Here is the input.
Amino acid sequence: MFFSALNLTGGYGSVDIIHSCSFEVNKGEIVSILGPNGAGKSTAMKAMLGMLTLSKGEIEIDGKDISKLNTQNRVKLGISFVPQTKNVFTEMTVQENLEMGGFLRDSSYLETIEEIFELFPILNEKKNQIVGELSGGQRQQVAIGRALMTKPSVLMLDEPTAGVSPIVMDELFEHILKIKEKNVAILMVEQNARQALKVSDRGYVLVMGENKYSGSGKDLLNDPEVRRSFLGG
Here is the structure.
């Protein structure tokens, strides 16, 4: 696997939130992390980003052990993250937000901005508009676009469709599928489990900080226990 997190145990202070959790994702693949509120989904993502201390576990990208690296150095190795909230600069324009995303780049990022405008046409239309004036779905496109400015090999999304309408949710998932086509490994935490599994190659269901179920998106959608417990029948 291109990116793997194996047997992660950790949390905050002396309290472990996740217990021996494992996740894997390849390039050109979408993998969802699902589960009820408080299951440890976002904690697991923070652990993979190096934002909390693990008592156990290993994290690798392209065969390189990054378990001891800080968040900034993990980002330099190709990991990009879109948090659920506070993921855009609301006082800046769309163009300025994207330029901020390319700030760490050594090379010119103008070509990358054009690629993002191609991926998200509405952002091209509104490139000179203040992001705080955009709709929730458009802001989320800005956030994802900014994350793509570093040309990541692994894109992590924390609740990318939170708080948007069903129509906007479908649009965002379509954009995520297009990003997958660019051979990016996509790992996302999602509350909209049924819709997420429809676009996911594979999924993991966390319960009380542990891997409860895992399998292909299709298998999890059709699993009677998963359907009953997490998909509303």
